[in-house]
Amino acid sequence: MTMHWPQAGQITLSTNDNSIMPEQGRNADSRIQYLRMEIDSLDNKLTQLLLARFELAKAIADEKDKAGLPIRDGSREQALLERISGLIAEQETKEFISEIFKEIMEQSVAFQLSLKKKETQFVRTENSFPNICIIGAGLIGGALARQIKSCNPESEINAIDRKENVESLRRSALFESVEAGVEPDLIKKASLVVIACSPERSLDILSGIAAHLSSGQIVMDVCSTKAQICSLAEQLDLNGAEFIGGHPFFGSEKQGFVASADVELDQKTFCLVPTSKSSDFSLARLRGWLSSMNFQVFSTNANLHDKTVALTSHLIQLFASALGSAIFEELVVTGEDDHLILSGGAFAGLSRLMNSPSAMWQEVVGQNSGEILRLSQSVFSKIMQMSKGSQDDAFEGDSSRKHSLEEMEPSPKNGLASQFHGIFEQAKQVKSLAKIS
């Protein structure tokens, strides 16, 4: 058997009449032995090719790590399978060879992930954060402090918070000390500074603490928008300190340190966003530390992060609140809220979001308004397309009943900020009336 190199994008196999084959008169065992020797020879070559492929996979993993890109690339995998399928002429083997390449890619991804795991394990062993300062020990900051103490009880955690919260926080055994306002001494001695405040407040705090930072420190925020704060960090003089954007994917519609005791963190995603003010080593150090506390750590860039969370989080929150406001006007004001019993599991999930704090979400939307407005128009246009299609099917030639949707146009900038509070408050009332926990 010999392989002819592909012509016009195909691979074909054909019998070579000149190859040394056992005479037909010999027994089947001899012929099988010969063919197995041929397979062994091919396996040797395949092994060398696979070793070379894994070396390239390792190099790609390094480049992706530097760029903050995920290991897995679904579009690349699909394109590779389509290309391989196009190289195989024989239909009887095409499916089986494609399955082999799927397994090769699975093992390649597993190999790349194992490299990252070994890297973070090494960094975690050699480096930790013995002294941590959390600025804003509310829901997110408090939950993170609890997880740190649970997994690393030897860590010293100090907190900076508003004056009215200091005394209650001091009663917690989590914190070595708690101070009101920016306390330079707590910031200076921290190996890791976590800014766990609202989006706008986080910008102010980063600017305010910059003068107190020094080389060897890492600063991380925990807001759900990244472009603005990462850009600010790159512009500020941090005196050699490094900034890495952070976004933990846990939380609650509730607020405050007390509510943080009920937040589940194990196996939750924690996104890291490197900046020009962070090194590969510090990113690996932080990733290893978070992994040791049972977070699923993912890295990306600021713009891709903000586009993604606009779709997977921000728009969903806005939809839930807008839906709650519409329900309030259509059912509550009319005294028909008893009909809220006609709801299922999907509404239960959205109703939890209806109780979210409007002030915080107004800041989130403000910082990610570009992506939210652009993507909301995209979503709205698709709803319009589906609705118009349904109208065409239902009404056929009756054009008089088609104008309502056609005349609607999205107006995302129409008083969004000024109407925020009222919409959220109406949604909260719907959440309460629906009696969904």
Strand element count: 10
**Shape type:** globular
Count every helix, treating DSSP H or I runs of 4 or more residues as helices.
15
> What's the helix-strand series?
EEHHHEHEHEHEHEHEEHEHHHHHH
Portion in beta strands: 5-15%
Q: How widely separated are the two ends?
A: 69 Å
Can you identify the CATH superfamily of the largest domain? Answer: NAD(P)-binding Rossmann-like Domain
Derived structural class: alpha/beta
Name of the top-level CATH class of the largest domain: Alpha Beta
Overall tally of domains:
3
CATH overall fold name of the largest domain: Rossmann fold
Mean pLDDT: 82
Rg, alpha carbons: 29 Å
Uncertain runs are 1-18, 400-414
Spatial strand sequence of the major β-sheet: 5-4-3-6-7-8-9-10
Largest sheet: 8 strands, mixed
Q: CATH architecture of the largest domain, please?
A: 3-Layer(aba) Sandwich
Helix content: 55-70%
